[in-house]
């Protein structure tokens, strides 16, 4: 593992009450006694970067922790764009091959909802190599790798994120309770049914059996069903020479086995059973050939299989053109106690709608999966549930700071995010008790269709709320306004995001003499029929690719028109023949703006507005 250099080293654990504990580390020895609650801790003085060291913890038994490094430790958190793994990022194949960094250590916090702060976390540190890094956060990896190259000290990256989550799930209960502006969040949770609140975050028991998977030819072929795979011989092969696989890593409290008898009273069936937690992904997956490449199933209209048991499941298909896990699949289906057929026509499959919309490609499929899911309608996450389950267990671990990439699921309440994000930051800092540690924020990228005219935008308002968070001490903003994709909320350019995060850390946290931010709006001045905008800049501002784009101007009527914008001595002068008496300017104020204001170092300017007129999320609760 990696411990934070320059900070007190806190070592803690559990033992029998009264049990003597001796901790030895880097020629230092400390003693402790197990308390009445079985807990103990010792504190060692700060150390410089270096290692490897051996840590010995001796009580009734001895625990040895080898290869401990002193270096820099960062927490990586947020929702899906922080969870987005390296193996799905742009240039993944080449990046993974070279991701051999023994002094970068990776730690992933398991996804868990809790209703009170948890103390323990079931995971382990791993050395960064091509195998361990594939499923690690792409943004986190690129961020840590860049810092490692620049600082030359060991890096510890603690990844704790969950796709599709809202900021209130990550905030402490105290921070939500202390601000009246956040009261609607707590009331919204209280207004949910008692059953929904009771089962949120609770593991569900299930037991499902599957057998006799058949491909259904199109009517024109005149053929009957073709057996794709069954388990009668105690194996898992299919007609394309692929096989079924099951991973316990994503569903540790489940069991997979082949059981007798299968459907029809003979052979075997595949059984998956156990407890399914909210974060678990219990998936029985079939590849279509031994090389895990694609096969042509365009002569088939669908697939039929048989199921019995209790619990819910869905069928998913996989195709090479989908890399963001928004696969074509069914809705949740409920099993019955007796064997029954489940027929899935390819024409009825749909994407969930949160990823990139792409055509279904039956001529190129790479596999099927039966995915076990929880009872539909009870997947709600409570306020503070992810802080209590996924952040609270690590708050005693000294860190340098946090990199945060979240906001997509709060865009409809963007104005509220002005209070919510600072509350989250203050709550985390209070929980760690290490002062105002650095908190770096990734501003949402461009996403969605282009607008022909200036308009209101919840994503623009969310970006503004992220910008407002810079009023807090020791925060940084990473602008990614040109790194998104119009049709995919999960853009694949993660290397650039990680590099900009590292640049922000180098210029702020580590005091390097680098330009780490693009132009940030500072002030405006009306000059007759035009407005002059001043910025906080690095070494000057410039347009990237021709004349400046993305500026709009409005008069007292609050109607915006596209504006002419020119650079004059590191200011931007904005005007429009439609607005003879301008009073306000907006820049890149859209979900997917066409904009090109940068500094001379090539870092984009943050979207902004000079007005404070009510937006479309101002009254959202």
Give an overview of the whole structure.
With 621 residues, the chain is of the alpha+beta class. It has three domains: 71-177 and 384-507, SGNH hydrolase (Rossmann fold, 3-Layer(aba) Sandwich); 204-373, Sandwich (Jelly Rolls); 520-609, no CATH class. The strands form seven sheets. Strands 1, 3, 4, 6, 7, 8, 9, 10, 22, 23 and 24 form an eleven-stranded mixed sheet that branches. Strands 11, 12, 14, 15, 17 and 20 form a six-stranded antiparallel sheet that branches. Helix 3 packs across helix 11 and helix 9 runs parallel beside helix 10. The chain is globular and about 90 Å long. The chain starts with a strand and ends in a 12-residue tail after the last strand. The model has no long low-confidence stretch (mean pLDDT 93).
Give the helices and strands, then pairings.
Layout: E1 2-4, E2 9-14, E3 20-25, E4 28-33, E5 39-44, E6 50-58, E7 62-78, H1 80-83, H2 92-97, E8 101-108, E9 125-128, H3 138-151, E10 155-161, H4 167-170, H5 173-178, H6 183-190, H7 194-199, E11 204-217, E12 226-229, E13 244-246, E14 254-259, E15 269-276, E16 282-287, E17 300-310, E18 312-318, E19 333-334, E20 340-345, E21 367-373, H8 385-391, E22 401-405, H9 414-432, E23 439-442, H10 458-468, E24 475-478, H11 494-507, E25 520-527, E26 530-536, E27 541-543, E28 551-554, E29 560-562, E30 564-568, E31 571-575, E32 584-587, E33 597-599, E34 608-609
Parallel strand pairs: 1-7, 7-10, 7-22, 8-10, 22-23, 23-24
Antiparallel strand pairs: 2-5, 3-4, 3-6, 6-7, 8-9, 11-12, 11-15, 11-17, 13-16, 14-15, 16-21, 17-20, 18-19, 18-21, 25-26, 26-31, 27-33, 28-29, 28-32, 30-31, 32-34
Helix pairs in contact: 3-11, 9-10
């Amino acid at each position: 593992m990696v411990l934070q250099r320059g900070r007190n080293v806190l070592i803690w654990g559990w033992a029998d009450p009264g049990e003597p504990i001796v901790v030895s580390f880097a020629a230092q020895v400390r003693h402790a006694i197990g308390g009445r609650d079985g807990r103990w801790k010792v504190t060692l003085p700060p150390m410089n970067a270096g290692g490897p060291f051996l840590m010995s913890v001796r009580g009734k038994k001895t625990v040895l922790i080898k290869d401990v490094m002193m270096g820099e430790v960062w927490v990586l958190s947020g929702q899906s764009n922080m969870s987005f793994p390296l193996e799905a990022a742009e240039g993944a194949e080449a990046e993974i091959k070279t991701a051999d960094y023994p002094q970068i250590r990776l730690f992933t916090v398991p996804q868990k909802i809790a209703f009170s702060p948890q103390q323990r976390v079931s995971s382990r540190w791993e050395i960064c190599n091509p195998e361990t890094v594939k499923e690690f956060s792409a943004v986190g990896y690129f961020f840590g790798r860049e810092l490692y190259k620049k600082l030359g000290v060991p890096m510890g990256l603690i990844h704790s994120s969950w796709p599709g989550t809202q900021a209130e799930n990550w905030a402490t209960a105290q921070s939500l309770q202390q601000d009246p502006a956040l009261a609607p969040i707590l009331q919204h949770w209280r207004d949910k049914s008692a059953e929904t609140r009771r089962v949120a975050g609770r593991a569900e028991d299930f037991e499902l059996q599957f057998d006799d998977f058949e491909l259904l030819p199109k009517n024109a072929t005149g053929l009957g069903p073709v057996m794709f795979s069954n388990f009668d011989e105690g194996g898992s092969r299919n007609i394309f020479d692929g096989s079924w696989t099951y991973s316990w890593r994503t569903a540790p409290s489940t069991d997979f086995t082949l059981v007798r008898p299968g459907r029809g009273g003979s052979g075997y069936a595949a059984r998956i059973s156990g407890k399914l937690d909210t974060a678990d992904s219990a998936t029985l997956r079939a590849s279509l050939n031994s090389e895990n490449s694609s096969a042509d199933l365009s002569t088939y209209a669908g697939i039929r299989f048989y199921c019995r048991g209790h619990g819910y499941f869905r069928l998913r298909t996989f195709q090479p053109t989908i890399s963001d896990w928004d696969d074509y699949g069914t809705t949740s289906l409920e099993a019955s106690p007796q064997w029954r057929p489940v027929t899935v026509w390819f024409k009825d499959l749909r994407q969930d709608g949160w990823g990139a919309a792409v055509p279904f490609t039956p001529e190129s499929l790479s596999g099927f999966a039966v995915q076990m899911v929880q009872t539909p309608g009870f997947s709600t996450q409570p306020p503070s549930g992810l802080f209590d389950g996924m952040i609270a267990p690590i708050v005693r671990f000294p860190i340098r700071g946090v990199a945060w990439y979240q906001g997509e699921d709060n865009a409809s309440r963007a104005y509220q995010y002005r209070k919510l994000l600072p509350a989250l930051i203050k709550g985390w800092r209070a929980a760690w008790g290490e002062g105002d540690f650095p908190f770096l924020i990734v501003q949402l990228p461009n996403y969605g269709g282009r607008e022909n005219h200036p308009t209101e935008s919840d994503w623009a308002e969310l970006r503004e709320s992220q910008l407002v968070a810079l009023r807090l001490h020791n925060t940084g903003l990473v602008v990614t306004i040109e790194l998104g994709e119009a049709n995919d909320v999960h853009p694949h350019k993660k290397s650039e995001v990680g590099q900009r995060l590292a640049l922000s850390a180098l210029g702020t946290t580590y005091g390097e003499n680098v330009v780490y931010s693009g132009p940030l709006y500072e002030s405006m001045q009306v000059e007759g029929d035009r407005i002059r905008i001043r910025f906080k800049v690095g070494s000057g501002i410039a347009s990237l690719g021709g004349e400046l784009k993305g500026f709009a101007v409005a008069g007292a009527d609050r109607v915006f028109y596209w504006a002419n914008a020119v650079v004059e001595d590191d200011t931007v002068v904005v005007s429009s023949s439609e607005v003879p008496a301008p009073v306000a300017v907006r820049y890149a104020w859209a979900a997917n703006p066409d904009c090109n204001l940068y500094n001379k170092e090539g870092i984009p300017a943050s979207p902004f507005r000079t007005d404070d007129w009510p937006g479309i999320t101002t009254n959202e609760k």
